[in-house]
Amino acid sequence: HTGTLAPSQADTLRKVPDTVEDGGVRKEKSEEGKAPAEGNGDPLQGAAAGKENGELQVDAELLPFEIVRGDRLASFLFKFQFKNVEYSSGRNKTLLCFLVDSQKGYLEDELQRGYLEDEHLGAHAEEAFFQQVLPEYDPGRRYQVTWYVSSSPCAACAAKLAEILRARPTLRLTIFSARLFMWEEPEIQEGLKALAAAGCKLRVMKPVDFSYTWDTFVENEDQTFSPWEDCQENYEYYQEKLAGILQ
Ligand SMILES: [Zn+2]
């Protein structure tokens, strides 16, 4: 497992990546959105670059499969990764767009927005969210967390999320998924049920949700989102499957 390291470990490892940086192979932020070419032998291909402010968790991640965190994702990435097709071949990562509204009393209201991108072979975006975006929990705060994900959580993530929700009773999580990940598998179905039982609202993205995600999380250059063919029908397909699982 390649999750975020504890701060103490990260501090130690921060000194390590000199060779990586000096070698000039770290990708710059501007390149993050480009689709990684496959099989070119570059172990860092597709890896996250550190943001300018050198966020700890990014520096500490030196493995080939990393979590990318950003403000708005490239439009082509959205159009490919969020497409709600039934057979999602080639989409071997999860894109997770998030909104966090955490409130303490009437005066303190904190908003966070952004996206995470994983590679399925490494840490998953769902878990990374609670390591990188919302690592702390204050029981005196109320958290409203909304995710728009390209595909629904795997069984392991569903179990971890259910556990997190049980441990954080003032946190409300709503997950809108473009596609259902391996929904035929019994363990996936059990995971989704456990997640719902832990209080997570699970939804399939409708055309209007794709449009909202496009407006809110994508470098859309002021273009209006136009749904692909079958967007509505595919939504109905997945919606029916999800309703069947959660009934
Ligand atoms: Zn997962």
UniProtKB/TrEMBL annotation:
<feature type="domain" description="CMP/dCMP-type deaminase">
    <location>
        <begin position="90"/>
        <end position="195"/>
    </location>
</feature>
<dbReference type="GO" id="GO:0005634">
    <property type="term" value="C:nucleus"/>
</dbReference>
<dbReference type="Pfam" id="PF18772">
    <property type="entry name" value="APOBEC2"/>
</dbReference>
<dbReference type="GO" id="GO:0046872">
    <property type="term" value="F:metal ion binding"/>
</dbReference>
<feature type="compositionally biased region" description="Basic and acidic residues">
    <location>
        <begin position="12"/>
        <end position="35"/>
    </location>
</feature>
<dbReference type="GO" id="GO:0016554">
    <property type="term" value="P:cytidine to uridine editing"/>
</dbReference>
<keyword id="KW-0479">Metal-binding</keyword>
<keyword id="KW-0378">Hydrolase</keyword>
<dbReference type="InterPro" id="IPR002125">
    <property type="entry name" value="CMP_dCMP_dom"/>
</dbReference>
<dbReference type="InterPro" id="IPR050610">
    <property type="entry name" value="APOBEC_Cyt_Deaminase"/>
</dbReference>
<dbReference type="GO" id="GO:0005737">
    <property type="term" value="C:cytoplasm"/>
</dbReference>
<feature type="region of interest" description="Disordered">
    <location>
        <begin position="1"/>
        <end position="49"/>
    </location>
</feature>
<feature type="compositionally biased region" description="Polar residues">
    <location>
        <begin position="1"/>
        <end position="11"/>
    </location>
</feature>
<dbReference type="GO" id="GO:0004126">
    <property type="term" value="F:cytidine deaminase activity"/>
</dbReference>
<dbReference type="GO" id="GO:0003723">
    <property type="term" value="F:RNA binding"/>
</dbReference>
<protein>
    <submittedName>
        <fullName>Apolipoprotein B mRNA editing enzyme catalytic subunit 2</fullName>
    </submittedName>
</protein>
<comment type="similarity">
    <text>Belongs to the cytidine and deoxycytidylate deaminase family.</text>
</comment>
<dbReference type="InterPro" id="IPR016193">
    <property type="entry name" value="Cytidine_deaminase-like"/>
</dbReference>
